[in-house]
Amino acid sequence: MNGANDETSATEESAPPSRRPMTLGRRIWRGVRIIALAYAIILVLMMFFEERLIFIPSKYPDGNWNGIGLSVEDAEFAASDGTRLHGWFLPHDANRREKPRAVVLIAHGNAGNLTHRTHLLRSLRAAGAAAMVFDYRGYGKSEGSPSEEGVLADARAARAWLAERTDVEESAIVLLGESLGGGVAVDLAANDGAAGLILLNTFSSLPDVAANVYPWVPVRWLMRTRLDSLAKIPRYPGPVLQLHGDRDEIIPIELAQRLFDATPDADKRFVTLRGATHNTIPPRAFDDAVKAFFERL
């Protein structure tokens, strides 16, 4: 009897470890390792596809390219690296005044293309301005693929084209940046100057926006694309008009206020667009503020 028990005990002790019951501690540790591995894979994928998460272009023929009700001119030009780009130029209404009240370059947001910004062209023309909106590389009819360095170069090329077309100095152009385009416009103004800076639903920096969208990811350490307007805006001493929707679900108005607070104490104004979300077509308050801004210029 004892011998049988001894034999059974020896058999159990010699069983492979894989067949032993998993303790609670081992189960927890295994679960932690699986979660950590999945988290690391997600971080690597987000880093690898960073630019695809930031830039969401609509290529031609997506969008409304005909029948927009505006007599725009096609602008074709090249960035410093040779990338061919496309934009629309809308002259001011010559029947209203001899010269435009302002010449404005529009840097649009991260999604769609220039055909989705005709409302901005209409607002600027109603305010007596001549305006140009352009597509970054990879958007609309523009060639290439977008990146931070690329879109900044594209904006410089667009401004040069607009200055030549309207026969004004590049520094005399007003820059309007919408959302991601705000980071582009601030870069231009901080480095090269501008007659004025209009910022619509923009941010302090892209990592700040990403931290709000992905609070569980250390984006401030990992992101390569910065568009750090907060660090650049102190170098621009000119007039600033900043507008932001108080229901913006993508870029919280607090990030816009942080950027505004860092703007040098010069001619600056912050307008809250009541009830507006991130993609709301700017209300009448936008038009009124822009007209008043041009008058101050």
Average pLDDT metric: 90
Biggest pleated sheet: 8 strands, mixed
- Count the domains: 2
Counting DSSP H or I runs of 4 or more residues, the number of helices is 11
End-to-end CA span: 105 Å
- CATH level-3 fold name of the largest domain: Rossmann fold
Q: Please give the oligomerization state of what you see.
A: single chain
Instruction: Using the coordinates above, name the CATH class of the largest domain.
Output: Alpha Beta
- Helix content bin: 40-55%
Radius of gyration equals 27 Å
**Widest β-sheet, arrangement of strands:** 2-3-6-4-7-8-9-10
| Strand percent estimate | 15-25%
CATH homologous group name of the largest domain: Alpha/Beta hydrolase fold, catalytic domain
Question: Which regions contain 5 or more consecutive residues with pLDDT less than 50?
Answer: 6-12
Shape: elongated
Order of helices and strands: HHHEEEEEHEHEHEHHHEHEH
Q: Helix- and strand-based class?
A: alpha/beta
Q: Give me the count of strands.
A: 10
Which CATH architecture of the largest domain would you pick?
Answer: 3-Layer(aba) Sandwich
